[in-house]
Predict the structure of ABC transporter ATP-binding protein.
Amino acid sequence: MVAPPDNDVLWARALHYTHSDGSPALGGVSLGVRQGEILAVAGPSGSGKTTLLRCLSGMVRVRKGEVWFNSAPVHTLGPLARERLRRDRFGWIDPAPVLVPELNVWENTALPLMLRGTSRRRAKVAALEWLERLDVGELARRRPHQLRQAERQRVCLARALAPAPTVLFADEPTAPLHRADRAHVLRTLTTASRSHGITVVLATHDPETAALADRTVALLDGRCVKTVHLPPAGDTTEGRAACSLSV
Ligand SMILES: Nc1ncnc2c1ncn2[C@@H]1O[C@H](COP(=O)(O)OP(=O)(O)OP(=O)(O)O)[C@@H](O)[C@H]1O
C-alpha cells in the first residue's frame, strides 16, 4: 500500500463500487484533490457523482480500491473511525435541505460544532456569524418548517461551514434553488472555501456551477472521462472559461 502524494489532501486509486442490489456505480476512479482546491465532479444523472462523494467521505466503504485522507487510509478504517473522521474533519451538503425539525435555525447550525465538543456558547457565536454571512441571520430563532426551501438550504450551508471542515463535500448543493439564490450560495461557498482554505468536492451536472471550480473531473458511467484544469482564480471569467484538457 503506497501513501498518496503530500500535496493531495484527498486521494483515490482505482475505486470500484457496486450497490448491494448489484448495480454498478464506480468502475475504477482515480483522482487527487489538493489542499484548498475546489474540485467539481461533473456528469449526467446516474454517472456516479453521489457514490464517488460517499466513498471519498467514508460514508460508505469502498469495495475495491483506496481512499486516503492526508496520510490516513480511509478504505481500511472501521465504521466508528470513519464516523469520527466525518464528524471532525468533513462537512456534507445534500441536494435537499435536511434539518432537525425540533431545533431552531441557530441550534441546527451549531449542532456539528457541539458534537465535536465546542461549548454551546461558542458554537452559537460561530453559528450566528455564518447565518449572517448567508443572509439568514434574522431567521436564527425560527424552526425549519417556518423557512422557505432556499432559506433552509442556506442554513445547511452555514451548518456545514461553521466547523471549518478540512474537506466539504457538496452534492448538488444548489439543486433546489432559483438562479439568483444559486449564484449567492455558490459565491458564499467559493469565497468561504478560499478565505478559510477549505477543500471542496462539488458534485454537479450544471456547467455554470462547475465553471466556478479550480478543476473539473467528469464522470460517465462510473468512470473518469476527462479532467479540466482552469487558470488561477485571479484571472478573468473569460480566462477561466478557456480551460485546458488533460484527459
Ligand atoms: N442505493 C442504490 N441502490 C442501487 N443502485 C443505486 C443506488 N444509488 C444509486 N444507484 C445507481 O448507481 C449509479 C450511480 O448513481 P449516483 O447516484 O452515484 O449517480 P449521480 O451521478 O449522483 O446521479 P444524480 O445526479 O441523479 O444524483 C446509477 O446507475 C444509480 O441508478
